[in-house]
């Protein structure tokens, strides 16, 4: 029979419990299941956070400043190049070479947990077609030390040889696509992490690594530290008609990534100088 509460008739189930009570129990169970799922690794924010290993040069720049790029306004002598990662898969290097691309950087590693599965095709393919090539590492300062990541990079394609065709390794340090923009580090701690990576890379290879970073990120996450400009070439991303303001310590850029939507494949870049200057950087 129905139960009367405050003048309201509540229907009963066959067991004698109010139907509204059974509904409340079901809702509570559903909420508990949802709460449990959200605590699983990678569940929270899964729709917005890319999978580990998928980061590439300019990924944070695109998210922060937008995608695309305008035709470079400078008429200064420059040499065209590209950068690629697993997103490009097997690259048609012949087409890029025919279009005037003379050098390339290839993603080798990320953190101490990821190796580009297309690295051999991309790194060797660019070399075999005649390009000067180099490797880059996507830094994740929140997952391992700078020293450990430099070792992982060198051990998995980021080394260097004086053959006139191999560029020094590049450190891609930019907005964190997986979380906090500065990887949870203070400005001083970030500078220390970068220094540890660079010192270890030089100890392993004899070369000063190229630094890829945007001025706004560098200002935000290192306090616009000026201590690397005298030793490490700068690779600046800016999808506009000029490279714009450079981070502190650098009087000029070595490479400018001017678009994230290349006409054939990958991000397109201009080396600040004629082809012989690219060779000079390769030779050290």
From TrEMBL:
What GO biological process term is on the record, naming one?
peptidoglycan catabolic process
Where does the protein end up? Secreted
The cross-references to InterPro entries, in alphabetical order and at most eight, read: GH, Glyco_hydro_25, Glyco_hydro_25_AS, Glyco_hydro_fam25_subgr
Q: What is its EC number?
A: 3.2.1.17
Its Gene Ontology cellular component terms are: extracellular region
- GO MF term list: lysozyme activity
Q: Which reaction does it catalyse?
A: Hydrolysis of (1->4)-beta-linkages between N-acetylmuramic acid and N-acetyl-D-glucosamine residues in a peptidoglycan and between N-acetyl-D-glucosamine residues in chitodextrins
Entries under SMART domains matching the protein: Glyco_25
Q: Which UniProt keywords apply?
A: Antimicrobial, Bacteriolytic enzyme, Disulfide bond, Glycosidase, Hydrolase, Secreted
The cross-references to Pfam families, in alphabetical order and at most eight, read: Glyco_hydro_25 (PF01183)
PROSITE patterns, sorted: GLYCOSYL_HYDROL_F25_1, GLYCOSYL_HYDROL_F25_2
**Any idea what job this protein has?**
This enzyme has both lysozyme (acetylmuramidase) and diacetylmuramidase activities.
Q: Which family does it belong to?
A: Belongs to the glycosyl hydrolase 25 family.
Q: Which PANTHER family match?
A: LYSOZYME
| Name of the protein | Lysozyme
Native species = Streptomyces lunaelactis
């Amino acid at each position: 029979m129905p139960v009367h509460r405050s003048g309201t008739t509540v229907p009963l189930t066959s067991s004698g419990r109010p139907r509204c009570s059974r509904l409340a129990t079901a809702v509570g169970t559903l909420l508990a299941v949802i709460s449990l799922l959200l605590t699983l690794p990678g569940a929270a924010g899964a729709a917005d956070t890319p999978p580990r290993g998928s980061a590439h040069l300019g990924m944070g720049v695109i998210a922060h400043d937008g995608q695309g790029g305008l035709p470079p306004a400078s008429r200064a002598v420059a040499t065209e190049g590209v950068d690629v990662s697993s997103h490009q898969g097997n690259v048609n290097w012949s087409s890029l070479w025919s279009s005037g691309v003379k050098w390339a950087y290839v993603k080798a590693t990320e953190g101490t947990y990821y190796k580009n599965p297309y690295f051999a095709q991309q790194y060797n393919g660019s070399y075999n077609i005649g390009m000067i090539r180099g490797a880059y590492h996507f830094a994740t300062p929140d997952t391992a030390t700078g020293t450990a990541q430099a070792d992982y990079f060198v051990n998995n394609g980021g080394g260097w040889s004086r053959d006139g065709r191999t560029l020094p390794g590049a450190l891609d340090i930019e907005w964190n696509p997986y979380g906090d923009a500065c990887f949870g580090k203070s400005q001083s701690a970030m500078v220390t992490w970068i220094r540890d990576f660079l010192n270890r890379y030089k100890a392993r290879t004899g070369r000063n690594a190229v630094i890829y970073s945007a001025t706004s990120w560098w200002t935000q996450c290192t306090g616009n530290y000026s201590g690397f400009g005298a030793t490490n070439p700068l690779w600046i991303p800016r999808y506009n008609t000029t490279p714009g303001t450079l981070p502190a310590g650098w009087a000029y850029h070595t490479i400018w990534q001017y678009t994230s939507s290349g006409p054939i494949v990958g991000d397109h870049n201009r080396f600040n100088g004629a082809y012989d200057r690219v060779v000079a950087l390769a030779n050290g």
